[in-house]
Specification:
368 residues, alpha/beta, 2 domains, 13 helices, binds glycine
Length: 368
């Protein structure tokens, strides 16, 4: 059973990855000392996930004498709001959660971010556990303690760093993940291969298909999840609060975020990151940070995951640039960018001009 410790000066927790382990989550909490003072656990989820996995998790908790409560929230980024957050507070109040009680997020990134933020703020901070059920949450959102909600003016503008006590990953739950979500999250997996883990990149290159869950054997999927979690943990351990290194995780996100906005979110996060990585890679070639050969290998992987490499004509380049210009990463006409230097390493630079980005966006890109 791969167990990755994430150790920070004041916190330490495990990321555990094991197929078929959902029914052991209660025992895992007990082993880590949760529930000794208060047996209450508020399980926050959404209806589809809870229908599939709720009973198993509730039984796992009851079997080791926890007292679980449930709260189901509507799925989707547009519900990551203060209104929904208050539903968690209301439920915490109605079941009299105490300081030593626990919240458990059973769902994707939205559920994890909101539950984490509720746990960070309820009674000035209580324990929480991440049980991610989407590939995106397993490789990224559930690890590292970023929690928060959206504000009308932007994503994740309200938030806190609050580390979970445990991240419990059962890859088997990905069987019920919608195919588009699986594919989109593969962009983040590829990202780790580029910025951190050349062996992960090579593994992805060896696999004949990357676009559907059914193409991955359980051991291979477990290895991929373990490598991504290891990469994220190593980065967070060196830079919990994103004062430097952690920004590497934004590879593909600068332009990607602009694409999400310009497409009015019709292009989802992972798809936008895939296109954003291609453009960032082109900039890296142009600036001689890395080679055209590395660029082609990246494009090949993105194509194999059946993710887009190009911007559809319907997306306005001008709107992307407007989003980039208003982004907090611009200073003096220069943008902060993560650029790859070789397969498995990247750097953060603030030497990229908005004009160069405009030039690259105008060229567009065709992989064939
Ligand atoms: N999702 C990026 C980070 O955790 O820093």
């Amino acid at each position: 059973m791969p167990v990755i410790p994430l150790t920070l000066p004041q916190y330490s927790y495990d990321i555990v990855i094991e197929a078929g382990s959902l029914s052991q989550v209660g025992a895992a909490l007990r082993q880590r000392g949760l529930g000794t003072k208060s047996p209450k656990v508020l399980v926050v989820s959404h209806p589809r996930i809870f229908r599939h996995y709720g009973a198993q998790v509730m039984t796992a908790l009851r079997s080791v004498s926890f007292e679980p409560y449930e709260l189901l929230l509507p799925p989707g980024e547009r519900y990551k709001t203060a209104t929904t957050l208050h539903k968690i507070y209301d439920r915490a109040q109605s079941c009299y959660l105490e300081r030593s009680s626990c919240m458990l997020a059973l769902g994707g990134g939205v559920i994890g971010d909101m539950t984490g933020f509720a746990a960070a703020t309820w009674l000035r901070g209580i324990n929480f556990v991440q049980v991610p059920t989407s590939l995106l949450a397993m490789v990224d959102a559930a690890i590292g303690g970023k929690t928060g909600i959206n504000h009308a003016q932007g994503k994740n503008l309200i938030g806190a760093f609050h580390q979970p006590r445990l991240v419990w990953i059962d890859p088997q739950v990905l069987q019920t993940l919608p195919p588009r979500e699986f594919r989109a999250a593969m962009a983040e997996v590829i990202k780790y291969g580029v910025i951190w883990d050349a062996q992960l990149f090579a593994l992805l290159e060896r696999l004949p298909h990357l676009d559907q869950r059914r193409y991955f054997s359980t051991p291979v999927l477990t290895e991929i999840l373990t490598r991504c979690a290891q990469a994220k943990a190593e980065i967070v351990m060196q830079d919990e609060r994103e004062s430097g290194l952690r920004a590497l995780l934004n590879f593909g996100h600068t332009i990607g975020h602009g694409i999400e906005i310009a497409s009015h979110y019709k292009i989802n996060h992972g798809e936008a990151v895939a296109i954003g990585m291609v453009f960032a890679s082109l900039i890296a070639v142009k600036m001689q940070f890395w080679s055209a050969d590395c660029h082609q290998r990246l494009v090949n992987l993105i194509s194999k995951a059946k993710l887009p490499c190009t911007l559809p004509d319907s997306i306005s380049r001008a709107e992307i640039l407007t989003a980039l210009r208003s982004d907090k990463k611009v200073e003096g006409g220069k943008l902060r960018f993560v650029l790859p230097t070789t397969i498995g390493a990247a750097t953060i630079t603030d030497t990229i001009s908005v004009d160069l980005v405009e030039e690259i966006l105008a060229i567009g890109y065709t992989s064939n």
